[in-house]
Design a protein that fits this description.
CATH architecture: 3-Layer(aba) Sandwich
Largest sheet: 7 strands, mixed
Radius of gyration: 14 Å
Shape: globular
Strand content: 25-35%
GO molecular function, one term: metal ion binding
Helix content: 10-25%
Pfam families: TsaE (PF02367)
Number of domains: 1
CATH topology: Rossmann fold
CATH superfamily: P-loop containing nucleotide triphosphate hydrolases
Number of helices: 4
Order of helices and strands: EHEHEEHHEEE
GO cellular component, one term: cytoplasm
GO biological process, one term: tRNA threonylcarbamoyladenosine modification
Strand order of the largest sheet: 1-7-6-2-5-4-3
Protein name: tRNA threonylcarbamoyladenosine biosynthesis protein TsaE
Structural class: alpha/beta
Amino acid sequence: MTGPHRIYLTRSPEETGDLACLVGAGLRPGDTILLDGAVGAGKTHFARCLIQSLLDVPEDVPSPTYTLVQTYQTGAGEIWHADLYRLSSATEVVELGLEEAFETAVCLIEWPDRLGDLAPAGALCLTFEVAEDGMRRIKAEGPEAWAARLPAETDA
């Protein structure tokens, strides 16, 4: 990717949530964020905080681990939150309707490796890592169009 490469360090779930709110503030229909990282790295927490920050009326934001996709109507447009962990092939992504959602909604995709070649070229990839001290390191990479929409890097 030729666009921004930023590193965010968060010391707590609250700081991760604050970052999610900042990223969410600049989203618009057609945006896709790929949330990559190990189980427990903070992907779902980030997605929940981002979604909740955009909801007009607060509501529960469950993990889509078993439903695969949860949708929300927000002031920023429709949001699709997908957890693809349980998928075994990219053809299942097509069956979920994600290809159309990539064009019309804000999409937050956990386990993006399951997309194969279906990952949108303009997506922002956030890679979550947990340090030994529990701090989260979140690396953002995406096309140049994301540069002005992302917050400045943080330092520990």
